[in-house]
Automatic annotation (TrEMBL):
Highest taxon, organism lineage: Eukaryota
Primary role: Lyase that catalyzes the C1-decarboxylation of 4-hydroxy-3-methoxy-5-(all-trans-polyprenyl)benzoic acid into 2-methoxy-6-(all-trans-polyprenyl)phenol during ubiquinone biosynthesis.
Pathway the protein acts in: Cofactor biosynthesis; ubiquinone biosynthesis
Location(s), subcellular: Mitochondrion inner membrane
Family named by the database record: Belongs to the COQ4 family.
Residues engaged in binding Zn(2+): 126-127, 130, 142
Keyword Transmembrane included in the entry's annotation: no
Key words of the record: Lyase, Membrane, Metal-binding, Mitochondrion, Mitochondrion inner membrane, Ubiquinone biosynthesis, Zinc
UniProt organism field: Stylosanthes scabra
Protein name: Ubiquinone biosynthesis protein COQ4 homolog, mitochondrial
Amino acid sequence: MIGGSRVRLNTWQQTAVAVGSAVGALLDPRRADLIAALGETTGKPAFERVLERMRQSTEGRAVLLERPRVISANAGHAWDLPPNTFGAAYARFMGSRNFSPDDRPPVRFMDTDELAYVAMRAREVHDFWHTLFDLPTNLIGESALKVIEFEQMYLPMCMLSVIGGTARFNPKQRKLFYQHYFPWAIRAGMQCTDLMCVYYERHFDEDLEELRRKLGIIPAPAAP
C-alpha cells in the first residue's frame, strides 16, 4: 500500500506491533521503519481526523483527489527554481544533508487506501516542515518538530518521540530544549494554519518568506 503491501492486523497483533515498535524506536531512534509502524498502529483515530479536515479544505481536497507524492521524480524541478523560493529552499535542505525523498518507508498498517495516503502524506511533508520552520535535523530539531506535529495531528507517536528524544539529551541540551525550543514549538504549532491541508507542491515557486507569512509560520529562533 503506497509503495508497499497492506498487512491486516487484529487487535492483539496491532498491540504487539505498537509495543515492539515503541521499544525498538526508543532503543534506536534511527529506525525509521519502527517509528513508521508505531505511528500507523497507534495513529488511526488521528489520521481519520486529519482526513476529515482535509475533506473540508479546498487545498486538502485537491491533495486527496490528485494524491501527489513527494518523490525525486516529482520534486526534482525544485533545484531549478530561483533561490528565494520555497522549492529552492527545500532543495537546499535536502541536498546539504544528502537526503532523498524516496527513502520514506511504505505504509503497511492502515485499513483503507485513503487513510494510507494520509499517513504517507504526513510522512512525506516532514521535510517541507523542516524547511518552513528552519529546523535542523539534529536531535533537538527533530524533537521540536515532533512537538509541532503533535499539535497539528495529535499523533501519539509524536509525543512518544519527544519523550524518547529528550531522554537522550545531555543536561545542556535538555536545558536548551525546554527553555528555548519547546516554548517556541508550542507557540508555532498553535499559530500556523492546518499544515496537512496545504498542497505544498503548488507553492514551490513562491517566495519563502511570503509563504511563511501566508501559512502563519514562525521560523525557529537562533540558538543562544
